[in-house]
Amino acid sequence: MYICLECRKEMMCLQNGVGIDYGLGHVYPSDTFVCKGCGIQIAATNRSSIHDPEYKSQETYIKMEG
Q1: Please, which residues have CB within 8 angstroms of residue 10's CB and are 6 or more apart in sequence?
Q2: What's the pLDDT tens digit per position in 38-48?
Q3: What's the burial of 58, exposed, middle or buried (CB within 10 Å: 0-12/13-18/19+)?
Q4: Structural domain harbouring 16
Q5: Is residue 8 domain-resident?
Q6: Can you count the helices (H) and strands (E) in the chain?
């Protein structure tokens, strides 16, 4: 369970199978969540990354910047 510290409300899952992409196939599988109160979104990643150079293991990818 994820809790929004601003609103003190439980966050709900938006999507499973989201890859957080650090480039060159360095991907952290994750799920995204949204706060029922303020609408802030987070990605809860696995602790370990995977090597996914063809970007085929997740449904959606979010490219990290910087």
Answers
A1: 1, 2, 3, 4, 36
A2: 999 999 999 99
A3: buried
A4: 3-54
A5: yes
A6: 0, 6
